[in-house]
Amino acid sequence: MRKFTLLASVLIASNFTFGQLFSDDFESYALGTYVGPQSTNWSTWSGTEGNTEDVKTTNNQALSGTQSIYFSSTAANGGPQDVLLKFGQVYNSGIFTLENNFYINNGKNAYFNIQGALTAGNTYTLNVNMDGGEIRIDDGTTADLAVGTYTPATWFNLKIVANLTLKVWKAYVNDVLISTWTNVTNAVASVDYYPIQNSQFYVDDVSFNHETYTLPTLNALTTQIIASGEISGQTFAPQVRVLNGGTTAINSFDVDFEYNGVNYSTNVSGQNIASLASNLVTLPTITLVPGNTQYRAIVSNVNGGIDDIGADDTLTKAINPVVPAPGKLVVSEEGTGTWCQWCPRGAVYMDLFTQKYSDYWVGIAVHNGDPMTITDYDAAFGNLISGYPSSLVDRGVDVDPSAMGPQFFERLQVAPKATIVNGAIWDETSRTLNVSVTANFASNATSSYKLACVLTEDGVTGTGSGYNQVNSYAGGGNGVMGGFESKPNPVPASQMVYDHVARAIAPSFAGYTNSFPSTVNAGESHTLNFTFELPATWEANEMHIVGLLIDPAGRIDNAGKTTIAEAVTNGFVNGSNAGLFEALANQLDAAVKLFPNPASSNTTISLNLEKEAQVEMKLIDFSGKVMAAKSYGSLNGTWSVNLNTSTFSAGVYLVELTIDGTKVMKRLIVE
């Protein structure tokens, strides 16, 4: 069964020889028969053999001889095939080698995992996904521990060599090393072949072997290079993990890191690294250059001399960073809500993108059904997504926030029509923010392009149940998710801080229709002005101005992101075309509270008005029927009304308040 997870070319070993504990070329089985009933090693996830969970031999493809086994699935959750190759025991020391030969049909995928306990499902050691000519390996915690390529519709060999004693793993494709890593789990008991949706693959010439491993006296080895950069021009400090693979404590060593013709050398001393412990060494900062370039880490001068095994001192990898289009900023809008049990995943991945790609990416959290909702933004965005959490990268196709990467890198390389510069005047006393969004065109355009402006805020907190975050990751049963696995369900408001929160959008989700003249030539600049009145509860120092250029198809062509202070430094530009927008930024939405929510017998609707306003209220059921309506006339200050819900059917209702013509909608759950 698949566990879905957000996630030197010399063997690390002393002298040993390979025999084989098990190998199978499937020639001994009758054609078209299930393998489980005929083998003590082959079985199924449930242990029931000889049915649809099992696998049959076929002669449609074979690497050796005439037969192999074939897996396929069209089911949304994969299967029903779910086949185990049992290793006969749990191995947690020594060197274990698993070899498979795969043939994956064009346009199809393949998946298998390694189990770490005799009972399948108790421990996932490794996941291997193969799709579109790419192999990606994770350990359930860290994604892309190994990334390699294969040719579809062609047999290829995938070999995994795990030194379980040292906790060092290697993966080879056609005997070429693709990665070395330190795995979270270091136990193997079986391999599980599980076809996920759109799988079609053959397996032939499977084998596994185990050898004991004896630690040498003195041995330091490089087991991991953490090169966090992925984009040309990014700067980062690479890290190299050095492991003590001997019995003698290591107190000093040198690390050399070679990249783009430059050697970065670091001496590490004053250590006491025990046997099988490691040290993560941070090296000087490097800048990524375009092209496929090798980098190499070498450990030497161990305890002032030469260690016992030189073959594992060097680790070599290659990096081919993405080259961004000049001036391009990619926008990810995320649909989320405090009521959404899986939405912590969105928050985690939005924060991850901020950490990794902040110079090339901006995130906007569009809240639904909670106190941070902007009604117009939520309504327009909600029409483009299929559920929560969801994200749109430059308003492309709907993807899970954990899957934004491919679209982000694709859009990053698309040259924009214009670069976007934000300017501002900020009056802290009146809390009036005047914004200019200027599009500097690099190529010709038309009046079908539009400008819009979004305000976001980081560090948002609140009180009351509406700020409690429902959390299905509580307890860790659904995996690790950025610390939410250690938080309760729901996470109380006092423990929640919300980032990237959309606070205002002007003039609308689609942008201003008269942003540009009918013909725009390369080299021209056009500016639109916006005015926002910021509520006192918003922290101006935590806010970002996001200027958007929207293309004729409704996709975001480019964006500009600044803090308010940065926009003030840029300077405010008067727009050459008429366009002054009042975006009060839904401070009214934040002023309306419902408690308790969910409600059983009653709920209180409270409203805190800073100035006098006409107020009307409607209660609407899920079908759209208006159950009650009332006008309260002119109100000011703090106001509340009790709503009896004891006679309501359980379900979801909308409380719609109209305040001086502005509609505020709150989601009410009746239990």
The second-level CATH architecture of the largest domain is Sandwich
The overall average pLDDT, rounded, is 90
How is the quaternary structure best described?
A: single chain
What is the number of domains?
5
**Alpha-carbon distance between the two ends:** 36 Å
What structural class is derived from the secondary structure elements?
mainly beta
Biggest beta sheet attributes: 8 strands, antiparallel
Structure notes:
This protein is mainly beta and 671 residues long. The protein folds into five domains: 22-211, Jelly Rolls, CATH 2.60.120; 220-319, Immunoglobulin-like; 324-415 and 461-496, Glutaredoxin (3-Layer(aba) Sandwich); 416-446 and 505-585; 591-670, Immunoglobulin-like (Sandwich). Helices cover 6% and strands 44% of the residues. Strands 1, 3, 4, 6, 11, 12, 13 and 15 form an eight-stranded antiparallel sheet that branches. It has a seven-stranded antiparallel sheet with strand order 2-5-14-7-8-9-10, with no helix packed on it. The longest helix is centred in the middle third of the chain and has 14 residues, at 344-357.
Secondary-structure blueprint:
Layout lengths: L21 E3 L17 E3 L12 E2 L9 E6 L9 E9 L3 E10 L4 E7 L8 E8 L2 E5 L7 E4 L6 E8 L4 E6 L2 E7 L5 E6 L5 E13 L8 E7 L8 E2 L2 E6 L8 E7 L2 E7 L9 E5 L3 E2 L5 E8 L13 E6 L10 E7 L7 H14 L3 E7 L7 H8 L7 E4 L4 E2 L5 H8 L5 E10 L4 E10 L3 E2 L3 E8 L43 E6 L12 E2 L4 E9 L9 E8 L5 E8 H7 L9 E4 L3 H5 E4 L6 E19 L5 E19 L6 E9 L2 E9 L1
Parallel strand pairs: 25-26, 35-38
Antiparallel strand pairs: 1-15, 2-5, 3-4, 4-15, 5-14, 6-11, 6-15, 7-8, 7-14, 8-9, 9-10, 11-12, 12-13, 16-18, 17-22, 18-21, 19-20, 19-23, 23-24, 25-27, 27-28, 29-30, 30-35, 31-34, 32-33, 32-36, 36-37, 39-40, 40-41, 40-42, 42-43
